[in-house]
Amino acid sequence: MKRLLITLTVLAFILGLSSSYAHAIPNEQPGLYITADMQFEYAQALFEQKDFTAAQVEFKRFIHFFPQDPRHDRADYSAGVALFHSGQFYEAAKRFDTIIRQSKDIDTPWVQQSCLMQSQAFESLGNTGYAQVVLQNYLKLTRDTDIKNRIYLELARMHIQNTVNPGKNELDSARKNLMLISPEKQREYKIAKQLEVIDNAINAPTKHPVLAGIMAIIPGGGMLYCERYKDAFISFCVNTGLIWAAYTAFDHDNPALGGAITFVETGFYSGNIYGSITAAHKYNKAAQIKILNKTFDFEPGFDPINKSFFLKLTHGF
Q1: Strand partners, 302
Q2: CA neighbor of 176 nearest in space, from 197, 189, 204, 195
Q3: What InterPro entries does this protein's entry cite (predicted)?
Q4: From CA 163, how far away is CA 61, in angstroms rounded?
């Protein structure tokens, strides 16, 4: 009986140990293993297929899981470009800024490209001024002559593009930047031709706004001076018609009607003068754009910040 109790105790101990051991080892589950090459190639494939929204996510995932991979900088830059092409300009600008700030060498290829892309991102947001500041700041830091040439070229393009906007004339600034490009690159970019076009635009025939306003004293005269013949005819007919109507009302002892017509005519007459001055400015701008368009190509763009349309220089260098 004593032997039986000892045997049962040992058996219970063994069974308990076996049970504990069985619970300590979980069943093996099948897993998915992704290498750095697989993740990077997948992100790159999405990028090449122009699925930029998914591509930027996969590049970020690559950066997170494989931070020591030598392609880290390339993936970081590619994620920014994917953000840019997916229309997330502000997020793209932030990512490019991070690349620039975290780099120990300001003249690495990825930093250089990030600087140019950050400028394009701000330009796409409608903030051309800050886009120029980004390039000018990098211009002070870089020692690379080639990147300096590219920055001068980009700044000149922006100045030419801004010139087509009402109230702006930055052709002199464009000219100065083009002249700063190294001589060998000036020949490659055919800068002499660009400078000639800019000089022609600067010296384009103009209409003097003050003279247009003075000539508008005679209704339609200012518009006629600005070669807007249809507007000149309409202005002449409307203003002379209202003046004659006011004169007739006063002549027939109807001062109330004559006063009302005179009040209306005052607005039309003032508009005739102001419109003539504006027409002169528009004539001058149109003359410049006509000359610039012979070499530079402009297309409509949209400023999402100010909710306005503008002309964007797509290429020409």
Answers
A1: 309
A2: 195
A3: TPR-like_helical_dom_sf
A4: 43
pTM of the model: 0.71
Per the CB < 8 A criterion, the answer to whether 177 and 163 are in contact is no
The percentage of the chain sitting over the pLDDT mark of 70, rounded to a whole number, equals: 83
pLDDT per residue as tens digits for the range 195-213: 998 999 888 888 999 999 9
Nearest to 219 by CA among 280, 275, 269: 269
For residue 234, pLDDT beyond 70: yes
pLDDT at 10 over 50: no
pLDDT higher than threshold 70 for residue 50: yes
CB atoms within 10 A of CB 76: 20
Specify whether the CB–CB gap between 33 and 55 falls below 8 A: no
The rounded distance, in Å, linking the Cα atoms of 309 and 302 is 4
Candidates 209, 114, 195, 127; CA nearest to 162 is 127
Can you tell me which residue has the tokens 């754009």?
A: 289
Average pLDDT over residues 94-113: 91
* Start-end of H helices in 142-228: 145-163, 171-179, 183-189, 191-202, 209-215, 221-225
CA dist., res. 193 & res. 199, Å (int): 10
Q: Are 34 and 8 spatial neighbours (Cβ–Cβ below 8 Å)? A: no
CB count within 10 Å of CB 165 equals 14
Residue 1: per-residue pLDDT: 46
127 touches 162 (CB < 8 A)? no
Phi, psi for 313 (deg, rounded to 5): -80, 115
Strand partners, 65: none
pLDDT for residue 15? 40
Q: Are 195 and 175 in contact (CB under 8 A)?
A: yes
